[in-house]
Amino acid sequence: MTQTLPPPPFDPELAAALGVISEMLPPFSLDSIAEARGGGAFPALTDEELRRDGAFTVEERQVPGLGDDPDITLLICTPTSVEGALGCVYHTHGGGMVLGNRRMGVDGLLDWAAEFGLVVVSVEYRLAPETPDPGPIDDCYAGLKWTAEHAAELGFDPSRLIVAGGSAGGGLAAGLALRARDEGGPALLGQMLMCPMLDDRNDTVSAIQMAGLGVWDREANRMGWSALLGDRHGGPDVSPYAAPARAADLSGLPPAFIDVGSAETFRDEDVAYATRIWQAGGQAELHVWPGGFHGFDMMAPAAAISQDARNARVRWLNRLFS
């Protein structure tokens, strides 16, 4: 592309919040990953916070990795007062493949769990660049298989199992759905992909438009994919389980919910993924939130558009589980 098109505007409420948010975010470069991990920008929820005054039990399990991989840790939160068959949401956290932990983003999932009677299982996968592909997706898949195989022990109906994640976690959730389909793995009821990170090629119009703007721009995205894939980043030898936009076939997947902001790097790759699911005869619900930057609903939760985005996810879950 020879001409850079003007970027779409940010939502007015979000634009006001963005200046404050930008000052709080850690720098995104391979040299600053250690600093970003220790900077406190992504604080981990405590067991007490996760229990919500006794509404959930909280435990952690060490479960086997794939093959010779090390054991992985699963955080398991179970509602204490739900009657009837429970479902399960298996969560892969965000963080650009280089940041985050199993407790990040779980607070929003607990809201879903309380409303729909869900066990929340969140996986601690190894991070790049210390663990490049396929380590992270292997960890997530090992945890998903263990969760499905131990549904009775965990107290949920295995036919009511979904995967969910945001940003890099959304890409991992999409990769899990592809891998479970291809390898005869757990049958999934749905996949919740929130502003998912899907395409290592990083060359869409929205990636170019939003360079240097908002949250997680093109340069940060290049860093994340380079940490995960090394020299394979952007080249021909990239697995669709690492970068789901690379999948040649999107048929036979569980129903998908995909949302993204109009003013963020991932807009076009996420729209394209939903479109290709429809073209393959599948089911996807797509929301492009006008003026939304990456992760806007988490970083500016009081904004009207953030509330709309969260409510749309709840409505989809209600249709799926009901």
Mean pLDDT: 94
The secondary-structure class comes to alpha/beta
Tally the helices.
Answer: 12
Number of strand segments: 8
| Fourth-tier CATH superfamily name | Alpha/Beta hydrolase fold, catalytic domain
Beta-strand percentage?
15-25%
* Series of H and E elements: HHHEEEHEHHEHEHHEHEHH
* CATH architecture assignment name: 3-Layer(aba) Sandwich
Using the coordinates shown, work out and report the CATH topology: Rossmann fold
The low-pLDDT segments are: none
Highest CATH level, the class? Alpha Beta
Task: Tell me, briefly, the overall form.
Answer: globular
Cα end-to-end separation: 46 Å
Task: Supply Rg.
Answer: 18 Å
- Count of distinct structural domains: 1
Characterization of the model:
- With 322 residues, this protein is an alpha/beta fold.
- The chain has a single domain (12-321), classed as Alpha/Beta hydrolase fold, catalytic domain (Rossmann fold, 3-Layer(aba) Sandwich).
- It is 37% helix and 18% strand.
- The chain contains twelve helices and eight strands.
- It has an eight-stranded mixed sheet, with helices on both faces.
- Helix 10 (267-279) links the parallel strand 7 and strand 8.
- Helix 5 crosses helix 7.
- The longest helix is centred in the C-terminal third of the chain and has 18 residues, at 304-321.
- The radius of gyration is 18 Å and the shape is globular.
- The mean pLDDT is 94.
